[in-house]
From TrEMBL:
Span of domain Activator of Hsp90 ATPase homologue 1/2-like C-terminal: 27-138
Natural source organism: Saccharothrix syringae (Nocardiopsis syringae)
A UniProt-annotated Pfam family: AHSA1
InterPro entries linked: ASHA1/2-like_C, START-like_dom_sf
Protein name: SRPBCC family protein
Family: Belongs to the AHA1 family.
Length: 166
């Protein structure tokens, strides 16, 4: 299956924001539950454990990655059902992420924002987020899960093309 990348890149005073969106015919509270409740995140990203809240760290198991590693995720901000800011730190570096939900007339747009310190590796990161957001769509719709090979390397050129040539 051919997937079309949707990611866009916005320059900010602090770096760049990689933004990928999906739209759901659902209330924001329902989409929020899909991205915050452990039994629902398990369907498209992985389950998590711990006591969540701003300033706290939970453990997320990335069950769709090789060897299903656990990852510490700090909750930087939580404003249900509109905004969740998270950060992680591991050998891949520090990742700062936001999920922003906006509902209009029963339709909710979910915007994933990856705040990038550098645009290095965007050719790998972007397809990964496209994959995970489509996993979320499939989990919500009850449709077959996408296959990562449909995203990478075919989307790599799109995301690398977003980079600042300087």
């Amino acid at each position: 299956m051919t997937r079309i990348p949707t990611g866009r890149l916005f320059r900010t005073p602090a770096g760049s924001d990689l933004v990928i969106t999906r739209t759901f015919r659902a209330l924001a509270e329902d989409v929020w539950a899909s991205v915050t409740e452990p039994e629902r995140t398990a369907r498209w990203f992985g389950p998590w454990e711990g006591e969540a809240g701003p300033g706290r760290t939970v453990r997320v198991r990335m069950v769709f990655e090789e060897q299903a590693p656990w990852l510490d995720v700090r909750v930087d901000a939580c404003d249900p059902p509109h905004r969740l800011a998270l950060s992680t730190a591991d050998e891949a570096g520090v990742w700062r992420l936001e999920l922003v939900l906006a509902e209009v007339d029963g339709t909710t747009e979910l915007r994933l924002v990856h705040h990038l310190d550098t645009e290095e590796g965007i050719g790998e990161v972007g397809p990964g987020w496209e994959f995970y957001l489509d996993m979320l769509v499939a989990a919500r719709d009850g449709t077959p899960q996408p296959v990562f090979d449909d995203y990478y390397p075919s989307m790599k050129a799109h995301f690398e093309g977003l980079r600042d040539p300087a």
